Amino acid sequence: MAKQFIGREKEKKILRELLKTTNSEFVALYGRRRVGKTFLIETIYQKEMVFSLTGLNQATKELQLENFTNTLNRQFSRLHQIPTPPKSWLKAFDILKNYLEDLKSKRKKVVFIDELPWLATPKSGFLSALENFWNAWANKRQDIVLVVCGSAASWMISNVVRNRGGLHNRITRRIRLLPFNLYETELFLKSRNIHLERYDIVQLYMVMGGIPHYLKEVRRGQSATQVIDEVCFSKDGLLRDEFDSLYQGLFNKPERYINIVKTLAKKPKGMNRSELIKAAKLSTGGTTTKIFDGLEESGFIVKYLPVGNNLKLSLYKLSDPYSAFYLKFMANSRASGIGSWLKISATSSWKSWSGFAFERLCLAHIPQVKAALGISGVYTEESAWRYKGNKEETGTQIDLVIDRADNVINICEIKFSVNEFTITKKYAEELKHKRLKFKQKNKSKKTLFLTMLSTFGLVDNQYSTSLVHQKIDVNVLFKEE
User: Is the pLDDT of residue 3 over 80?
Assistant: First the structure.
């Protein structure tokens, strides 16, 4: 029976198209841990998969080769077993070539190598053997789809996608698998016969993001509060000890990456590069740049280019919902057991966190925001904007700026609330100040539209009517991209 598959329409289309081409294909698939990479490949290529090898974590070369031998022997009859593991990966791939050449099928044959970084350790010779397998054999055929996969995004980029050796420019398809968006999350839950109000789904997303493995923990008949209690604060909750495992499984020397994440967690409004390097006590240079790139490619942080493209003023923000939640409420916390989240939800810390968590969620759904504004077909550049202020002037910040090619800039304010949001006289003055400072400091001649994105929309009053050009609620974020 075929596995039920939710979402991933773009990725499914790409992978299926590779079966129809008249040449062999080399696919690099990467994405953070638990995002569903293996499930995607095993589901789409269920019928075409002829060999699948998964690397072993922290295993010796000899043990990896033994695993390779055992895996291939399962494809052979008892009369054709490989008696002893090969001594090198070059020989192992030679055995694999012989096996593939003996297959009679004329359809595409998928070779899947999962957890590649665990296999291609220093001095193992794996990458060189893989290069030879592709360049000298598979690339000269028409019937091979080679898929290599890894959770360590920075490693995959450096060693496979941007390889300067034998794999240079050999990748024919590159797929970065992202977490589910809200549309896919709702579909996923419904496929499991779980029907929650969208406000409850938003709460879950603000805690665990769109990670399928985490969303499997949502049980039918439980409220969002109960789910968060059980998954995050119970003794055996999946996410209780996930944080360290998450980064250790992705990065070499994970403490350097965790340091940046912890630093950004303390500054949810964002930091520029120099501020972040200083606060995290990092050195400038290539190593730090690689750490930043690794966190960006893995989806833990995001960099927003400022209006005007002054790269030095780019803002870095923590974008992973679970990491932000863990560091805010779980790390070094005594909270545990049933009722923990309900108790936390009554505190001022929850109110502060929910605002930033909702903003983080909205920024992850900019295509849906653009669709709601009717500008999907308009070229735009998105950024966050900050003016630090001085002794004479009060600083301010804008959550999202959508700079449009049609001579308009949407200044977007994002507000989380449990009911319709009310613009008060005081907040109206704040909005006027934001708009004025933005126009002054950027010397923009474009028309400025104030856009409000809130959970349940706005209360109509004199301030919302006079100030706000467009108002949208959370339902727009659930639209298919």
Answer: no
**What's residue 1's pLDDT?**
39
Q: What is the pTM of this model?
A: 0.91
Enter the tokens of residue 440: 């002054």
Do 275 and 409 belong to one domain?
no
pLDDT single digits (tens) 109-145: 999 999 999 999 989 999 999 999 999 999 999 999 9
Here the tokens at position 293 are 């790139």
pLDDT digits over 67-99, tens only? Answer: 999 999 998 876 678 889 999 999 999 999 999
The CATH number given to whatever domain includes residue 141 is 3.40.50.300
172 with 196, same domain: the answer is no
Tokens of 17: 């198209």
Alpha helix positions (H), 3-79: 9-17, 37-44, 61-73
- Tell me the CA distances in angstroms from 243 to 10, 224, 248, 254, one per residue in order: 29, 21, 9, 11
Instruction: Specify the number of domains making up the chain.
Output: 3
Q: What angle do CA 329, 334, 340 make, to 5 degrees?
A: 65
Q: Is residue 164 part of a domain?
A: yes
DSSP letters, 92-155, are: HHHHHHHHHHT----S-EEEEEESHHHHS-TTS-HHHHHHHHHHHTGGGSSSEEEEEEES-HHH
At 176, is the secondary structure helix, strand, or coil? Answer: strand
